[in-house]
Prior knowledge:
Layout: E1 9-14, H1 22-35, E2 40-45, H2 47-50, H3 57-73, E3 82-85, H4 91-100, H5 105-109, H6 112-120, H7 127-141, E4 147-149, H8 155-172, E5 180-182, H9 217-225, H10 242-255, H11 259-265, H12 271-297, H13 300-329
Parallel strand pairs: 1-2, 2-3, 4-5
Helix pairs in contact: 3-12, 4-7, 4-13, 7-8, 9-12, 10-11, 10-12
Amino acid sequence: MAENERKKVILSGIQPTGVFTLGNYVGAIRNWDTLQEEFDCIYFIADQHAITVRKDPVKFRQQTVESYALTLACGIDPKRSIAFIQSHNPNHSQLSWILGCVTQFGELSRMTQFKDKAAKHADDINAGLFTYPVLMAADILTYNADVVPIGDDQRQHLELARNIAVRFNQRYGDMFTVPEGYYPKVGARIKSLQEPTKKMSKSDDNPNATVFILDDKDTIMRKFKRAVTDSDSEIRFAEGKDGINNLLTIYSCATGKTIEEAEREFAGKGYGEFKLAVGEAVADYLEPVRTKFAQLMDDKAYLKECWTDGAQRAFRLSNKVFTKACRKIGFVDYR
Length: 335
Ligand code: TYM
């Protein structure tokens, strides 16, 4: 790369709504780690997004700290990347207001996540839940991020962020980079172990449906032993075999083998044996994360140092873009 050429900016976030799931890890965070090698990376804990659903403040604060520690435990290097907590950089919510004024009510009404969450929390369909995707667009655009590594469930939100960027640029002149999504080839949508047509989610009521990345080996094995499969007996990736497809995907992600290699390895074997092998592979895969997490949680001073430094760097970077956007729309300059 030529010296004056800018490295691509990668950005992603995760909500601190409890321990991350195997889906979060496979669909997003493990890719964040590898992207650090090549790009300028910005990663944050989306605590402002999380309050769209009511939270107990004490528990929420603790979960945010744990989530920050978890991202470092998953391999995010706070020196090499910018790793911070969303509410520590006011530019996200400031820009969100501006972008909200170029976003249509109809666009937000079409967001499937809004519809799902509104149905689930019918007694608290707050304005934040509705405008959530605008804040997500601001998270991305305030750094002029080029690439956003996410799972499949965030695709619609990213499309909206792209539309908002294009519309702003058309109205006010070239301003925002139009971001590209980066979706893993395998594992962009890890499914529930109990209902393999649904995505694996932190908030599933069935405790056997979701693997959390801090689950111990016994728990992981128990969940995989109980994983739902089908009445067939062949271990192959095929239409209608959602449970087996999901297990093959998970096995492939945990071992680095392709789906075809996994199919060959288990040809002629029974579902019971296969489920145990997937459980073992996942337990081994997650073990280093658990160890690193425990070490980090023992050193809160270090964690605080990291997120403070991250917030300062994030602010400096985003402020350039934010100030330019303010000028473009005609706010009076004061700096
Ligand atoms: P969140 O916290 O729900 O999930 C974090 C990341 O994990 C991915 N993911 C999955 N991938 C595969 N299979 C699954 N079962 C699965 N479940 C979750 C998600 O796609 C996501 O990449 N709105 C975002 C957070 C956010 C954000 C942003 C992301 C806020 N601002 C800006 C990117 C850029 C969210 O709620 O993710």
